[in-house]
Specification:
The structure holds two protein chains of two kinds. Chain A is mostly helical. Chain A contains eight helices and no strands. In chain A, helix 2 crosses helix 3, helix 6 packs across helix 8 and helix 7 crosses helix 8. Chain B is α+β, with helices and mostly antiparallel strands. The relative contact order of chain B is 0.13. Chain B has a six-stranded antiparallel β-barrel with strand order 8-9-10-13-12-11. A six-stranded antiparallel barrel of chain B has the order 2-3-6-5-4-14. In chain B, helix 1 packs across helix 3 and helix 2 crosses helix 3. Classes of the chains: A mainly alpha, B alpha+beta. Chains A and B meet through helix 2, helix 3, helix 5 and helix 8 of A and helix 1, helix 3 and helix 4 of B.
Chain lengths: ~190, ~375
């Protein structure tokens, strides 16, 4: 019961991007995944990539409203990594004789589909934001990502007052939205 | 400009920072204007996307930092030289199956070879034990005997070391003695001691490892040819159940033992030997096996380790074969005259039989140079 509570707390921490929680999760799960990848024709770098992607998938799940984790965290992380890795091996056309350790796994297909969609969305947003140009990019990042208030932003960027900065921010936002949705709707 | 005002309103609405009256008005507007409603939904979704993007981006940075941190702390490990070790690990992974197959094949071959070796070497089989005396044991006896026979000068060559010992018996009163070849394994010369403690130097005339027989010749000026050998050596096959006895030197004095012939063939059906039911001990090797008529039917050589009281003896007709072999290979040796077919101790009491035989049975000691 205590362990379960602990896991819930960790996931809550992860959802809030709490670095203590992330560190704990990292320490407890990374070596297992690394061993699995190395045993299956993978490298240290690939192990790191796959593990971090699984952490992102777990983060997405922890953040979603309908979040329920029916298994232990390490089972879930292992299952995700296993699917991700075999998929990548297949894409790379690399051979693996699929050495499974005796870890149990849970079905993660649906979660991975959601994760892939999220990945695509992330890429679109990243591209849109990067093609926005300065100062729009930094202004929007400051407001929406770093959650700074308009007063601070006006000072940072040298606007005469917060209202002007705000106006500029909205103009940038309209452009970003256009760029984002142009890509996003093609994607759909 | 209008767009911006509208966007601002939507954002404030979504943030929940509108005043109640304003909010009611905006909701009314939303209800009546599908375009505005659509914009609200769209913006809400977009803000959500932004939020997710922000969160994921932060997480990625966090993960990267934590990975570096844990690596430097040693909580996780990528090998000391990540690239080099990674390659080794990859190579290992790549060729692991090949290695495993090679190892298996090697293992199987090793097993087969060791199996064959064991199978083809029956005498050295762990289930069989040669009855040669242990060196340490012989040495101890030697000391004991030395004190007992103080008046007799030891014939042991100077600087020689004992390699083993056993029993032997005369087949020609000129001093030809039969014993087991394994008694003399690894030795260059030997001495023989009779039951009175008289020691004579002997040379190794012939060894036949396959038959496990060897012939010694007493080569000592102190040796006086004995009277005619009382026993005979049987040429023909032996009878199952025949009562047999032996004399040997598992210790310093001659030891008598009795039993019966339990099988015509020896260990694993070896037809050159026969099986005896009799207790035999290290030191008995090379001793004569006689029947009640005083005929030598075999030379005791090995025993079965796992079964109590099972010993094996080389059949006596091999002595004839050995003598023939010797004649064919070496002309220089004088003519060996085996005892006559008529045993002179037939039909007499066992105690008297032993008295007559015991002087013809010797303790054999094998030596090698240092």
């Amino acid at each position: 019961m205590k362990a379960e509570l602990n896991e819930q707390a960790l996931l809550k921490g992860l959802a809030n991007n709490d670095s203590k929680a992330i560190e704990t999760l990292y320490k407890e799960n990374f070596s297992m995944v690394q061993a699995f990848i190395l045993n299956n024709n993978g490298s240290y770098d690939e192990a790191r990539d796959i593990f971090q992607e699984a952490m992102i998938a777990l983060y997405e799940k922890a953040r979603s409203d309908s979040f329920v984790l029916t298994s232990k965290i390490n089972t879930y992380v292992y299952s995700i990594c296993r699917r991700l890795w075999f998929k990548r091996l297949q894409q790379l056309g690399r051979y693996s004789n699929q050495i499974d350790s005796l870890e149990e796994t849970v079905p993660v297909e649906e979660d991975l589909e959601i994760h892939e969609k999220r990945n695509a969305e992330f890429a679109i947003m990243d591209r849109a934001l990067n093609s926005l140009g300065e100062p729009c990019k930094s202004l929007l990042e400051g407001y929406y990502l770093k959650k700074l208030d308009m007063q601070q932003l006006a000072q940072m960027f040298g606007y005469t007052n917060a209202d002007n900065a705000k106006n500029q921010k909205y103009k940038c936002l309209i452009r970003l939205k256009k760029l984002f949705f142009a890509q996003y709707n093609i994607g759909e | 400009m209008e767009d911006i005002l509208l966007l601002q309103a939507i954002e404030r609405y979504l943030e929940g920072s509108m005043l109640p009256a304003e909010k009611a008005y905006f909701e009314e507007l939303r209800k009546n204007t599908p375009e505005i409603d659509q914009m609200v939904v769209e913006h809400s979704m977009f803000l959500h996307q932004m939020d997710f993007y922000a969160g994921t981006r932060t997480l990625k940075h966090n993960l990267h930092d934590i990975h570096t941190k844990l690596l430097s702390l040693g909580d996780i490990n990528e090998g000391n030289e990540p690239s080099a070790k990674g390659k080794v690990v990859q190579m290992w992974n790549k060729y692991r199956r090949v290695t495993a197959i090679a190892a298996c094949a090697g293992g199987i071959i090793a097993l087969v070879i060791s199996g064959l070796v064991t199978y083809l070497a029956p005498v050295n089989n762990s289930q069989i034990q040669q009855l040669k005396r242990d060196v340490e044991y012989v040495k101890r006896n030697q000391q004991y005997q030395g004190s007992k026979l103080s008046e007799v000068e030891s014939k042991m060559p100077k600087g020689a070391i004992l390699t083993g010992g056993g029993t032997g018996f005369l087949i020609d009163n000129k001093g030809y003695i039969i014993t087991n070849a394994h008694v003399l394994t690894g030795s260059a010369f030997a001495t023989v001691i009779n039951n009175n403690g008289e020691e004579y130097k002997a040379k190794i005339v012939f060894k036949d490892e396959a038959k496990d027989l060897a012939m010694l010749k007493i080569d000592d000026k102190d040796f006086k040819p004995l009277k005619n050998i009382p026993y005979s050596i049987k040429k023909t096959s032996v009878d199952l159940g025949e009562e047999i006895f032996t004399l040997g030197y598992p210790k310093n004095e001659v030891v008598y033992n009795v039993g019966y012939l339990s099988s015509r063939n020896g260990y694993n059906g070896d037809s050159t030997t026969c099986q005896l039911q009799m207790s035999a001990n290290p030191g008995n090797s090379g001793g004569p096996v006689l029947n009640k008529n005083g005929e030598v039917i075999g030379i005791i050589s090995t025993r079965e380790k796992l079964s109590e009281g099972v010993a094996f003896a080389v059949k006596s007709n091999n002595i004839y074969k050995l003598v023939d072999e010797l004649k064919n290979t070496d002309d220089s040796t004088e003519n060996i005259k085996l005892p006559s077919n008529n045993s002179s101790i037939k039909g007499i009491d066992r105690k008297d039989q032993i008295k007559k035989i015991e002087n013809y049975v010797f303790l054999v000691q094998a030596f090698n140079k240092k």
